[in-house]
Amino acid sequence: MFDQILQFVLTGVTVGATYALVALGFSIIYNASDVVNFAQGEFVMMGAMSAIAMSAGDGIPVFLSLPLAVLVTIGVGILLQRFAIAPARGASVVTTIIITIGASIFLRGVALLLWGKSIFAMPHFSGEQPIHIGKATLLPQNLWVMGGAAFLVLGVHWFFNHTTLGKAILACSCNRTAAQLVGINVGMMMLIAYGLSAFLGAMAGILVTPITFTSYDAGVMLGLKGFSAAILGGFGNPMGAVAGGILLGLIESLAAGLISSGYKDAIGFIILLLVLFFRPSGLFGKATSERV
Amino acid sequence: MRRLAGLCLLATIVVVLPILFPDNYYVTVVGVTALLHAILAVSLNLLMGYAGQISLGHAAFFGIGAYTSAILTTRYGWDPWAAIMAGLALTGLVSFLVSRPILRLKGHYLAMATLGLGIIINIILVQGDQLTGGPDGLGGIPTLSLFGWALDTDLRWYWMMGATLLGVVWLALNIIDSRSGRALRALHGSEVAAEMMGINTTAAKTGVFVLAALIASLAGGLFCHQQSFISPDSFNFFFSIELVTMVVLGGMASTYGAVFGALILTLLPELLVVFEDFEVMIFGAILMLMMIFLPQGLFVGLQNLVLRWLNRRRSAAFGAVGE
Amino acid sequence: MALLEVEALTKSFGGVTAIADLSFDVPPGQVYSVIGPNGAGKTTLFNMLSGIYHPDDGSIRFMDQGVVGRQPHQVAALGVSRTFQNLQMFFNMSVLDNVMVGCHLRTRTGLFSAALRLPRIKREEKLSRQWAREALAICHLDKFIGQEAGSLPYGVLKRLEIARALAVEPKLLLMDEPAAGLNDTETLEMRKLIRRICESGITVLLVEHNMGLVMQVSDRILVLDYGSRLAEGTPVEIQNDRRVIEAYLGGEVQYAL
Ligand SMILES: Nc1ncnc2c1ncn2[C@@H]1O[C@H](COP(=O)(O)OP(=O)(O)OP(=O)(O)O)[C@@H](O)[C@H]1O
Ligand SMILES: [Mg+2]
Q1: B2-296 has which CATH code?
Q2: Per-residue pLDDT tens digits for C68-82
Q3: DSSP-derived 3-state class of residue C65
Q4: Of A231, B39, B316, C208, which sits 20 to 30 A from A191 (CA to CA)?
C-alpha cells in the first residue's frame, strides 16, 4: 500500500510540475495584461511538436532542435501579444477570452496542417533505465521534469524579485499609467511577459513529452489544467499557481490510482469547485472585499 | 407593437426560407441546427449578455436535457414528452443546487467554476456507460410526435425548432423589458447599487441561471429526439465555448444578436469545408479577427453602423430644411 | 423619537479602525451631515448603515428596527436608499431604465409573469415609468430621459444617482459626497435639490467635503475624526467648537461664512 501511494505521489508530482509551469505562464500573462490566455496549452504543444518535427528523419540534432523549438514558441507568444492582444486593449474579459480561444484554435489548426493528427513520441533525455525507490519506480525523465520545473520556477521567482526588468513588468501590472510615467516601455514589457510565458510552456512541453507523447490537440487539456491550477492557487499569485499545479497533479494521480482513472479529471475539477466555494479567491489568493 | 417588430421580422424569415427553398440542404439540415443553436445562444445570452454572469459550461444543461430524455425513452420506454419534462425537472434541480455557490464567484473564478462544472458533467456522461452508453453514445431514440403529427422529416423538425426558437425569443424579449429584466441588467451594471435599489441579487442571479439552464435542457430534449443518436461529444467543453462565442459574436445583451451569432457560427464551418485542411486554422483566425475589430459583436456593430448612417441622413435632411 | 439610532458602532479592517464606538441619533425630517477629514470613516459608516458591511460591534436601529444582519436589499426595503461616492450607475442602461430600477420595491411582478407578458406587467410598467419620470423631474433631469447613461457628463450622473435613489421612495436618503467634482453652479443647484428633498419629507444623511454647502444646507452636523465622534450640533455650534476648529476646520469656517 505504502509503495503504491509513493508511486502515485511520484507520478503526481511529475504531472503536477508540468501543470505548475503552465499555471505559472497563465499567472504571468494575467498579471501583466489582465488576460486569461486560453492558448497557453498550445505553447506546450508547439514547443514539443516543433522540436520533434525539426529532428525528425535526417533533421538537425536534438541539442539544436530543442533550443530552436523554444525560440519558435517564444516567437509565437510574442506574435500573439503583438497582433491579437495588443490591438484589443481595453476589450471586456469575455472578448479577450474569445480572442485567446480563437488563437488556440488557430495554433491547433496550424499544427494540424503541418503535422496531421498522428501522435508523436520524443526520445528520453537520458535513457529509460528505471530507478527504484522501495518498490516504486521512476524514469530518469521524471527527474528531468521535476528538476527542470523547479529550476524554471526558481528562475522566474528570481527574475521578478531581483532584476530590474522583472520589477518593471510587475510595475506595469500594478499600474500601467504610472509605469509609463516613470519611463517604462509598457508595450515592450508586455511582449517580454508573453515571450516568457511561451518559453515556460515550450519548456514544459519538451520536458514532459518523452513520457506523455504529444499531438496537435495535446494542448487543450493541459491549458485547462493549467488554468485550474492557477485558480486553485489564487489567480495572479505566481507561486500560488505553482503550488496549485503540484497539488492538482497529486490529486489526480491519487484519485486515478485509488478511486477511478476514468473519473480522475472529474475529481480534480470537483476539488477545485469545492475550494472555490469555500475560498472564492483560491488557496493562496488574498481575499478582497469590493470597495464602494 | 414596435416592441415586437424584430420578432415579426425573424418569424417571417423563418417561415419564408423553407417555402422558397423547400428541399435545400442549407435550410432543412443546416437550418435546423442553426435554429437549435439560436435557442441555446438566446438562453445563454440572458445569463451572460444581460445579467453579466459568464458561463463556460452551458452545454452541460443541454446535455442533461438530452440524456435524460434519451435514457428514459430508450431504456425505460417513457413517452418522449414526459421524458423531456423529466429532463427539465432534473436540470432545474441541478442548476438550482449549484447556482448559489457558483454565482457567488465573479470574473475569472466564475468562468473557471462553470467550465469545471461542464467538464464534470461531461465526464459523467462518458463514464456512466451503463446508463449513457459511454463514449460510443446512445442510439435508437424515438422521434417526437405532436398532436398525432410525427416529426419524421427534416422539414417538420425545421418547423418544430423554428416555433420553439420564436417562442424562446418572445420569452427573452418579454423578460428583458420588465422589472425582472431590469434587475438583471442592473446587477450587471453594479451589484451593490442593484442591491441598494432593493434587488435581491442572489435570487435574481439564481433565477436567470435556472431559467437559462431550463431552456438549454428543452433544446437538449428536442435535439436527442431529432438526432435519434447522441454522444457526449455534442455536450463537451468545446460546445460550451462555441455557445459563448455565438453570444459574443452576435453582440452581448442583444437577443437578435445571439440569434445572428448562432447562425454565423453554424454556417461558417459548413462554408469552410471547402478549405479542407485549412478549415480549423481559418476558423480560429476569423474568430480572432472579428473579436479584435468588432468587439461589440457583429450584429450590434452592424446595427450601430446602420443607425449612425440613418441619423446622418436624417440630420442632413433637417439641414436642407433649415436652409 | 429619532429616525435612526446608532449606538457604540465599531468596525475595523485588519489593523485600521475605521469606526470606533460611535453613537448618534438622526431626528426625522432634517438634513443631518457627517463631516471629517479623508479616511475618517464616513463611507464606512454609510456602508454599515446600508447593510453592505457588517459592523464588528454596536447596533443600528432604523424606525425601531435592527439594521445589522440584514442584507442591503432588505435594508432598502425598510426605507433606506443611498448614492455612492464613486458613481455606481448602471452604465449598460438608459437614463429612464436606471431610474425605473429604483421602482423595484414599489412593484411586484416576477420572472414568470414577465416571461408571459401577463396584462399586469403592462400596468406596472406604465406606473414605474411615471414614477421614474417624477423622480427625474425632481432632479431636473427631464431632458436626458431618452439618453444612455454611459453618454452623460459627470455632473448629470451625480444627479441621476439621486433620482434613482428617490424612485425607491425612501424615508432616509444617504448621500455620499454629492457635490464632489461639481462646479459652482452645479453645487448651488445640488444645495437646492438637497433642501427640496428634505422638504418633501425625506430625511437626508449627508457626507460632504464642501464646507460652504454643508453649513448652509444642514440642520445638524456630526464631526468624525479617526472614526469617533469629535463634536455634534447645529452648524453654528460646530463652527464655534474649539476642538473642531483646532482639529479640522481651521480657517475654512471663516471662508464658509
Ligand atoms: N474595504 C476596506 N478594506 C480595507 N480598509 C478599508 C475598507 N474600506 C475602508 N477602509 C479604510 O477605512 C478607513 C476609513 O475609510 P472611509 O472610506 O470610510 O473614509 P472616508 O471618511 O469616507 O474618506 P473620504 O473622505 O476620503 O471618502 C480608511 O483608512 C480606509 O483605508
Ligand atoms: Mg468616503
Answers
A1: 1.10.3470
A2: 999 999 999 999 999
A3: strand
A4: A231
Give the relative orientation of helices A2-33 and A40-55 as an angle to the nearest 10 degrees.
110
Q: What is the distance between the alpha carbons of residues C249 and C243, in angstroms, rounded to a whole number? A: 9
Give, as one character, the DSSP assignment of residue A286: P
My answer on whether C57 and C5 are in the same domain is yes
Whether residue C35 lies inside any domain: the answer is yes
Helix axes A186-212, A40-55, angle to 10 degrees: 60
Asked whether residue C162 falls in the same domain as residue C208, the answer is no
Beta bridge partners of C225: C228
Instruction: Decide if C84 is inside a domain.
Output: no
Whether C39 lines ligand 1, by a CB cut-off of 6 Å, is yes
Name the DSSP letter for residue B3: G
Domain range for C14 is 1-79+170-257
Residues of C in contact with A292 (CB under 8 A): 43, 47, 52, 84-86, 88
- Give me the pLDDT at residue C255, please: 44
**Residues C136 and C175 both lie in one domain:** no
CB within 8 Å of B20: residues ≥ 6 apart: none
Q: Nearest residue of B to residue C77 by CA position?
A: B198
- Grid cell for residue A112: 494540424
- Based on the domain organization, do C155 and C189 belong to the same domain? no
C228-233/C31-35 β-pairing: unpaired
Using alpha carbons, select from B238, B78, B225 the residue that is nearest to residue B164.
Answer: B225
What is the number of structural domains in chain C?
Answer: 2
Residue C155 Cα, gap to closest chain B Cα (Å): 18
- Angle in degrees, 0-180, between the axes of helices A140-162 and A2-33, rounded to the nearest 10: 30
In this structure, the answer to whether residues C143 and C123 fall within a common structural domain is: yes
E strands present in B68-216: 145-146, 149-150
The position carrying cell 452581448 is B252
CATH of A7-118+136-278, one of 1.10.390, 1.10.3470, 1.10.260, 3.30.410: 1.10.3470
Whole-structure pTM value? 0.92
Residue ranges of domains in chain A: 7-118+136-278
CB B295 within 8 A of CB A91: yes
Task: Check whether residue C52 and residue C70 sit in a common domain.
Answer: yes
pLDDT in tens, B83-117: 999 999 999 999 999 999 999 998 888 998 999 99
Q: Where does a domain end: C140, C168, C196? A: C168
Grid cell for residue A148: 527542470
Distance A182 CA to ligand 2 centre (A): 29
Separation CA C74–CA C51 (nearest Å): 8
Q: Is C54 in the pocket of ligand 1 (CB under 6 A)?
A: no
| pLDDT tens across the length of chain A (292 residues) | 788 899 999 999 999 999 999 999 999 999 888 888 999 999 999 999 999 999 888 778 888 999 999 999 999 999 999 999 999 888 888 888 889 999 999 999 999 999 999 999 998 998 889 998 888 889 999 999 999 999 999 999 999 999 999 999 988 888 888 988 888 999 999 999 999 999 999 999 999 999 999 999 999 999 999 999 999 998 878 899 999 999 999 999 999 999 988 898 899 899 989 998 998 888 887 766 667 7
Residue nearest to atom 5 of ligand 1 (CA): C13
